[in-house]
Design goal:
Layout (H helix, E strand, L loop, with lengths): L4 E6 L10 H17 L4 E4 L12 H9 L6 E4 L2 E2 L5 H14 L4 E6 L6 H4 L7 H17 L3 E3 L7 E4 L10 E6 L3 H10 L3 E4 L9 H13 L9 E9 L3 H22 L6 H7 L7 E3 L1 H15 L3 E5 L7 H15 L8
Parallel strand pairs: 1-2, 1-12, 2-3, 3-5, 4-5, 5-8, 8-9, 9-10, 10-11, 10-12
Antiparallel strand pairs: 6-7
Helix pairs in contact: 1-11, 2-3, 3-5, 6-7, 10-11
Length: 338
């Protein structure tokens, strides 16, 4: 039997005027500290470069969190690899691994928000090529001590060794939204897969899980090392006022993003469908949340489940209460994996 890991992710949202950036970042550190004290397994912080998210540099927040926590794994969720320097990333996360005494993880993705591309001087026409090349280099840097590399979108390297050195490679996972190419890439490199499930029926991803599992073995990787995570928007409470608060902030933020991307309006009816057993939201009492998670863990063969509880900015005490219930009340109800 294998214990299912439970964790939290946050974009450190700032979707209303109730907080300053300083207050919101310090709130996030309080959330991470509590998650560690309660024995949750992972806390991930996302990267964004826009007004409604407070963190543009996850590594900085994670380094601060490493000094106030003891056991929880700390990682990005995600770093937009296409507009980052793989050399800098490996150096930064090796340093985080040292500060945290071996708790650092690096979750990378192609990026569903694109503000970082022009900000750092990258062309969106190179969206796919940038990720492919940088992901290949990132994995080489993570697994080899001396690297020679001929780059097109990256710098070329001649017998380069990176520092600081660490005793083991950083765990690098790929966050995907459900495209076939992303699934194939994760399997090819033998890295953990992280499914971002924020829309539609979660069972839509079942075919992608099966594809990943099959290709992982076909590419010659040991299935014992396979690791599948799903990240959901979610909230745990039996207090109707708190549940309404999460609902309202969730709808507000999803509509903000939807207007930018041309989505259909996200309504109360949409939300009610999303919190049903066929929907992607993991919301309700501890028992309701555990029931839905056990179902999805079995159907998608998950090793880790992450909840993003602050889709919109909530009062700190409300978020902390949800984290407490997730750790104290949901965890004991989660079935172990056979």
């Amino acid at each position: 039997m294998k214990k299912i890991e439970l964790g939290i992710t946050s974009f450190v949202e700032l979707t209303n005027d109730s907080k300053t950036y300083e207050e919101r970042i310090h709130d996030a550190l309080e959330e991470i500290k509590l998650a560690d004290e309660l024995g949750l397994d992972f806390f991930g912080v996302g990267e964004h470069h826009r007004k409604d998210y407070a963190v543009s540099s996850p590594i900085t927040v994670l380094a601060a969190a490493a000094t106030i926590t003891k056991n929880i794994k700390l990682g990005s969720a995600v770093v937009v690899l296409s507009s980052e320097d793989p050399v800098c990333l490996i150096e930064q996360y090796r340093t985080l691994d040292i500060i945290s005494k071996g708790r650092a993880e690096l979750m990378v993705g192609r990026g569903s928000f694109l503000e970082s591309f022009p900000l750092f001087g990258y062309d969106l026409e190179d969206y796919n090529e940038l990720f492919e090349e940088k992901f290949a280099l990132l994995n080489i840097l993570n697994n080899q001590n001396n690297v020679t590399w001929e780059g097109k979108h990256t710098q070329s390297l001649q017998n380069v060794t990176l520092y600081p050195q660490t005793q083991k490679p950083i765990t690098i996972s790929v966050g995907v939204g459900g495209t076939r190419n992303s699934i194939v890439r994760a399997a090819k490199y033998g890295v953990p897969l992280v499914l971002a499930i924020i829309g539609g029926n979660p069972l839509y991803f079942k075919s992608f899980v099966e594809l990943y599992k099959r290709l992982y073995v076909e590419y010659g990787h040991d299935p014992k090392n396979m690791h599948i995570t799903a990240n959901f928007h979610g909230f745990v409470s039996d207090n109707q006022k708190e549940l309404d608060m999460f609902r309202d902030e969730n709808i507000k933020q999803m509509n903000q993003i939807g207007r930018e991307r041309g989505w259909f309006p996200y309504t109360t009816k949409t939300y009610e469908q999303a919190i049903s057993m066929e929907g992607p939201l993991i919301v309700g009492s501890s028992e309701e949340v555990a029931t839905k998670l056990n179902y999805l863990i079995k159907e998608l063969d998950l090793d880790r489940v992450l909840l993003q509880m602050t889709v919109g900015t909530l009062p700190l005490n409300v978020t902390l209460n949800s984290i407490k219930r997730f750790a104290k009340e949901v965890r004991p109800l989660i079935n172990e994996k056979k």
